[in-house]
Design brief:
Helix 5 links the parallel strand 3 and strand 4. It is elongated, with a radius of gyration of 28 Å. The longest helix is centred in the N-terminal third of the chain and has 21 residues. 35% of the residues lie in helices and 22% in strands. The strands form 5 sheets. It has a 5-stranded parallel sheet. Strands 8, 9, 11, 12 and 13 form a 5-stranded antiparallel sheet that branches. By secondary structure, it is of the alpha/beta class. It has 2 domains: 319 residues, Vaccinia Virus protein VP39 (Rossmann fold, 3-Layer(aba) Sandwich), CATH 3.40.50; 101 residues, no CATH class. It binds S-adenosylmethionine. S-adenosylmethionine binds next to strand 4.
Length: 431
């Protein structure tokens, strides 16, 4: 059975007061079902029946997808708590009502509704914006349902990157928007803050307060794997938003220097840390907004003392273009092992091919004749190994013994007859 109105208020209290991560997913699901029943927008609806809007500053996700955001428990909890804390701090410091602007409410005004429904009469003036009329209609239903009319909430069906308040004198103490994905890709968060920050009071706060994008040098994809911080390549906060609003776009480009060390075997990982408000922080592993991105080792060139260039580009689907140093190829005079120099498994060519990858990782270059390459493909084919996967492993692993072990694990034990058949096929193809 679903929640009653008073049970909904109780669960909203839990959401606002529980320690990070201590909110039960079951409670969140019950809240979402309740909000769906009031608004008529259900998270269970097939997303193909709900339209997103492409704008010049990024994609505005569809009403159903925006509703689903509520189900990201830790995100919803920390944002709802951050908004509540910021409003309470502001109430303590001001006599006048706290002016709140919330851009991108979705159908449930998720980041503000929990606070409004648990409070009797907060001294706030609320302005809500969403680009989808369906969301504005849904929010009106919630205002009526929870008897929030006394807040005189103003709603605007508008694009928040273009919207202006009725009076040019109007300013807000708190501006809230969660219109982002990890690495600030695709959605318009940056451009919404860039535009709306001009309406922020001098002492006002943006929520989230800071979104920090960092690059790390790492040897594996695991978050606990040893990683060295290369640096922050972008930070969205009040000061960068103000600079952007003055058309100072310099923060969109940055360079990080690669320290003086042998980085072979390393790749680059990019992370998104979000300071929602004060001590309320979302970091890797907390929610989808913090998903880290790991480059394939083939796509990175880590030449010591050179730089990696980051540029925020393509406003209609914003993303970072990332430029690594140019690979410094040189033809090698290193003599690779001969094809018949076999390892523990007895397979021809494997040692030669592994050693070639090993040297390429270190900046050497080798010419591979077509005949040799095609003969090599015969081996992978007969082993039923995917060529791209084999190449990836050759580049990832640092020792031939480890590579042979990986081949053995992938293929199962190889009989002498099978090895001979593969070697014969290879010889026939290459000679
Ligand atoms: C990621 S959802 C967040 C919904 C809700 N605030 C939450 O945090 O769960 C983003 C919302 O912002 C709205 N939106 C995106 N771009 C917008 C824009 N340029 N102007 C106004 N609303 C926008 C979308 O329609 C969607 O409802």
């Amino acid at each position: 059975m679903g929640l009653s109105k008073s049970q909904f208020v109780d669960v909203a209290q839990v959401l606002l007061n529980a320690p990070k991560g201590a909110v039960d997913k079951v409670d969140i699901k019950a809240m979402v079902d309740y909000l769906g029943a009031v608004t008529g927008i259900f998270t269970s609806t097939d997303m193909n029946y709900s339209d997103k809007t492409e704008t010049a500053s990024g994609v505005a996700i569809s009403p159903v997808q925006a509703a689903k955001c509520f189900e990201e428990t830790v995100r919803t909890q920390l944002f709802a708590q951050g908004v509540a804390q910021a409003i309470n701090d502001c109430i303590r410091e001001n006599d006048a009502p706290v002016r709140v602007l919330y851009a991108g409410t979705g159908p449930y005004a998720t980041l503000l509704i929990p606070l409004l429904v648990v409070s009797d009469n907060l001294p706030v003036e609320v302005t809500l914006i969403d680009i989808h009329q369906e969301n504005i209609d849904a929010v009106h239903k919630l205002i009526n349902h929870f008897n929030l009319d006394h807040y005189h909430i103003r709603t605007h069906h508008a694009d928040a990157t273009l919207w202006h308040p009725e009076s040019s004198q109007e300013h807000f103490d708190i501006i809230i928007s969660e219109t982002m994905t990890a690495l600030l890709k695709r959605e318009p968060q940056v451009y919404i803050f860039k535009h709306l920050v001009q309406f922020l009071a001098p002492e006002g706060v943006l929520i989230p307060q800071q979104v920090s994008l960092k690059a790390w040098l790492t040897q594996g994809e695991n978050k606990d794997e040893r990683a060295e911080l290369l640096g922050e390549f972008f930070c969205l906060d009040k000061s960068t938003s103000l600079a952007l609003s003055q058309e100072d776009l310099s923060c969109f480009s940055s360079c990080l220097a690669i320290p003086d060390k042998d980085w072979s075997g390393y790749t680059v990982k990019l992370t998104t840390d979000i300071q929602v408000y004060g001590d309320l922080v979302l970091t890797e592993g907390d929610c989808s907004l913090n998903i880290a991105f790991n480059f394939s080792p083939y796509d990175v060139v880590l030449t010591a003392n050179e730089t990696i260039q980051f540029d925020y580009v393509a406003p209609s689907s914003p993303d970072f273009s990332i430029l690594f140093p140019k690979a410094q190829w040189q033809y090698s005079d290193y003599a690779l092992p001969k094809s018949d120099d076999v390892g523990r498994l007895g397979l021809m060519q494997l040692k030669r091919s592994f050693q070639r990858a090993f040297m390429i990782k270190r900046g050497e270059r080798f010419e591979v004749l077509d005949a040799e390459w095609h003969a090599e493909l015969v081996i992978y084919d007969m082993l039923a190994l995917n060529c791209a996967e084999v190449t990836a492993k050759m580049f990832e692993l640092e020792s031939f013994a480890d590579f042979e072990s990986w081949v053995e694990t992938s293929t199962g034990a190889l009989s002498h007859t099978k090895v001979e058949a593969i070697n014969d096929a290879f010889r026939r193809r290459i000679y």
